[in-house]
Specification:
This protein has 356 residues and is an alpha+beta fold. It folds into 2 domains: 3-138, Acetylcholine Binding Protein, Chain: A, CATH 2.70.170.10; 238-356. It has 7 helices and 7 strands, in the order βββββαββαααααα. A 4-stranded antiparallel sheet has the order 2-5-7-6. A 3-stranded antiparallel sheet has the order 1-3-4, with no helix packed on it. α5 crosses α7. The chain is rod-shaped and about 155 Å long.
């Protein structure tokens, strides 16, 4: 006979434990073991392991975790019990992948076994064997439920710049987006990891999206206030006219609008042909005519002055509105650039962290 099965209570068994044990082993026990003809004893011991693992969640949900299981005797030294890996780590990995029956959150990459070497020749140390298990998180669910909705909402917020800035509908739309995004983060908070030594990069991504939406809303409030109250402002200073209307206006493809002539020329308005009184007109009628002509000149001057003031006010209001449109277009371009640079940077950091 090559081997026989005998009860466990007939043998001395080593007290091999797993250091990372967090709970009691609740797996069913096997009352028998195999005794081979060459003296080897094979014990098939099923173990339900609930262990601790230091998670690195910086690149969540594209993270790869390396957890360890350390086997050693609890009370015997290496001079009494020596522990060695039973198989090659390639065979262990292949067998482990074949017997895995779950398609859960984690995907097994490989299992490596290392015997912890101690140079103490006396053998007064505990012999150990460590198994390092590398698992990769399945990120599809998190991409669909967390990342894509955030990208969609920030894209909608980006295109909201196409709405007319002089109306309050744009600010209301952005406030609705911020409220919806806040509710989304509260609902999806349970999917985010709560353990780890570092802040996950996905939290930075969510915070960045929220900051961009709030900044966009503040920009809309500022532009709407500038366009709505442009008629109450003083004339545009020369440096603002030079910087925004001449330089930045051309930069954002919104050159300064040409001033429209309303045909109110005070010199032409005040020029009136006064005909001399005809023969036979009385002196009283002549004086009345002179008074009417003088009154007409005064009214023409007042009208010209009012038109000039109105023209200056319209011109000042138009220039402030032009400044507002230029600032809105400029901030829209900066918003696109900042979103692109930020997202590309986060993606590069994610890829590098996953590769490491």
């Amino acid at each position: 006979m090559d081997n026989i099965s005998l009860p466990k209570e007939k043998f001395w068994l080593p007290d091999i434990v797993i250091n990372e044990f967090m709970e009691e082993n609740k797996a069913p026990s096997v009352p028998y073991l195999h005794l081979h003809s060459d003296g080897r004893v094979h014990e098939a011991l099923p173990v339900r392991v609930v262990s601790s693992c230091n998670l690195d969640i910086y690149s969540f949900p594209f993270d790869i975790q390396n957890c360890s299981l350390t086997f050693n005797s609890y009370m015997y030294y290496a001079m009494e019990i020596k522990i060695f890996p039973g198989r090659d780590q390639e065979i262990i990995t292949e067998l482990s992948k074949n017997v895995m029956t779950t398609r859960g959150e984690w995907e097994l990459l490989d299992i490596s076994a290392h015997k912890l070497v101690n140079n103490d020749e006396s053998g007064l140390y505990i012999d150990m064997v460590a198994f390092y298990i590398r698992v990769r998180r399945r990120s599809t669910m998190y991409v669909v439920t967390l990342l894509l909705p955030s990208c969609f909402l920030i894209t909608v917020d980006l295109f909201s710049f196409l709405l007319p800035p002089q109306r309050t509908d744009r600010a209301s739309f952005k406030m609705t987006l911020i409220l919806g995004y806040t509710v989304f983060l509260l609902i999806m908070n349970d999917l985010l990891p709560i353990t780890g030594n570092t802040i996950p990069l996905i939290n930075v991504f969510f915070s960045l999206c929220l900051v961009l939406m709030v900044t966009s809303l503040l920009e809309t409030i500022f532009i709407t206030n500038l366009l709505s109250n442009s008629s109450d402002f003083s004339p545009v200073p020369q440096w603002i006219r030079t910087l925004f209307l001449n330089f930045l206006g051309c930069l954002v493809c919104m050159p300064q609008r040409k001033r429209r002539s309303n045909g109110s020329d005070p010199e032409k308005t005040n020029n009136c042909d006064v005909k001399p009184p005809t023969m036979g007109v009385s002196v009283v009628e002549d004086k009345a005519l002179q008074e009417l002509i003088s009154l007409s000149h005064v009214l023409q001057a007042i009208r010209s002055e009012v038109e000039q003031q109105q023209q200056k006010g319209n011109q000042s209001s138009g220039e402030w509105m032009q400044v507002g449109f230029i600032i809105d277009r400029l901030l829209f371009g900066l918003y696109i650039v900042f979103i692109s640079v930020s997202f590309i940077t986060i993606i590069i950091v994610w890829v590098n962290s996953s590769n490491q």
